[in-house]
Amino acid sequence: MTVSSVLVVGGGIAGVSTVAELRKNGYAGELTLISADALPYDRPPLSKEYLAGGRDLESIVLQPKQWYADQEISLVGGAAAVAIRPAAGEVELADGRVLTADKIVLATGGRAVLPAVAQVRRDVSVGLPVSNGQNRPVVPDRSPIHVLREVADADRLRTQLVPGARLLIVGAGLIGAEVASTARGLGAEVVLVDPLSPPLAAAVGIEAARWLHGLHAAHGVEALTTTVETVLETSTGVAVQLKGEPDSREFDAVLLAVGLVPETGLAEAAGLETSRGILVDAGQVTSHPSVLAVGDCARLRDHHRAEHWEAAQLDGARATATILETEPPPVTAPWWWSDRYGLHVEGVGEMRSPDAEHQTVVRGTLGEPPFSVFTLRGEQVIGAVAVDDPAAAKTARRLIDRGVDVRPADLADPTQNLRTLLRR
């Protein structure tokens, strides 16, 4: 069928990438983007430059306001979708408006996870609870309990990151580590807790994970392998009991950085199939042929859900190819990046610990940037992590995508130009 109208629900990178790709690839029909924010913005800076005060909201928008007008995209900002009706091609907004389209693309993203510890006990003199019992943050403006997903979250947290402030970060993944770095730069005293030792080993390999986690202590962060047992919010801050410690600790603020939950409510209410995300096929189509899903809310059947920035962007390109009935973009190794303590880290593919099938190769000296760590299966690279070495990450991705055979000695030799390996 000819698609004459497309409606995208969600203004993150996945939603904006979808409308951008549609116009870029010649789609001339009606195109509407519904965004909870007045102007969609980029999220990675929220734990780094924006949180530190080095960038403002205007500098992190994904596209300036005029771009939507120039591209003839109807941006419905500051709006929330409350229902979709796939058979009728309808999206109902909170203000009662009903919009229609031939295709609906759900780009609803995710919300911050509230672990059990978020159900805090509170001093009777303190106001509202921080959870409404539905795993959705309900945090009063002056509450010392924080999550970090939206600009408003970063704005609230920044007010408490003053010199000498005591911050507890629960979760030492990418967001927790980035906030620890930012908070130290602002002069806060930081304690970082995570039950894994070391965190991120699955993403970067055990050797690089140990070194990366060790950066926290080197920069004055107290990094502990433990969990939080109880939290008591008082009139002066937060009393936290850490497992294995005899006494509770006092903090001025607590950040819960333990992941996100995909926003599947609209899909579930509409009868779409969900399981740890909105289930989609390789073309991003859900269980209803008129509805697609992209980004953090979507999960390809029989695969893990991807949560990285570029993965959401590529979802938009695949959805565009489906709608326009054109060739989808080629499958490529997953790629992500992170920044902490002035270092830039990139990862591609899949890292594995050495075993009968896999070996680890270090290029340069581990712990002395720039360096890179590769995982090989036989003579093929399947994953790499690079610290201050973006060229190595870029080349590793090409090696993975092309299935090029390499010699471990060539990878390990810092005088060897990695790009020459692509010609073999």
Keywords:
424 residues; alpha/beta; FAD/NAD(P)-binding domain; Enolase-like, domain 1; 5-stranded parallel sheet; 26 strands; 29% strand
Integer tally of domains: 3
Largest sheet: 5 strands, parallel
- Name the overall outline: globular
Distance between the termini: 45 Å
- CATH fold naming of the largest domain: FAD/NAD(P)-binding domain
Tell me the strand order in the biggest sheet: 3-2-1-7-20
What does this protein look like?
This protein is α/β, with parallel strands linked by helices. It folds into 3 domains: 5-109 and 263-324, FAD/NAD(P)-binding domain, CATH 3.50.50; 114-259, 3-Layer(bba) Sandwich (FAD/NAD(P)-binding domain), CATH 3.50.50.60; 342-423, FAD/NAD-linked reductase, C-terminal dimerisation domain (Enolase-like, domain 1), CATH 3.30.390. It has 11 helices and 26 strands. Helix 1 (13-24) packs parallel to helix 9.
Task: Write the SSE topology.
Layout: E1 5-9, H1 13-24, E2 30-35, H2 49-52, H3 65-70, E3 74-77, E4 81-85, E5 90-93, E6 98-100, E7 103-106, E8 110-112, E9 121-122, E10 145-146, H4 151-158, E11 166-170, H5 174-185, E12 189-194, H6 201-204, H7 206-218, E13 222-225, E14 228-233, E15 238-242, E16 249-251, E17 253-256, E18 260-262, H8 265-269, E19 278-280, E20 291-293, E21 298-300, H9 309-324, E22 335-340, E23 343-349, E24 358-365, E25 368-377, E26 380-387, H10 390-402, H11 408-412
Helix pairs in contact: 1-9
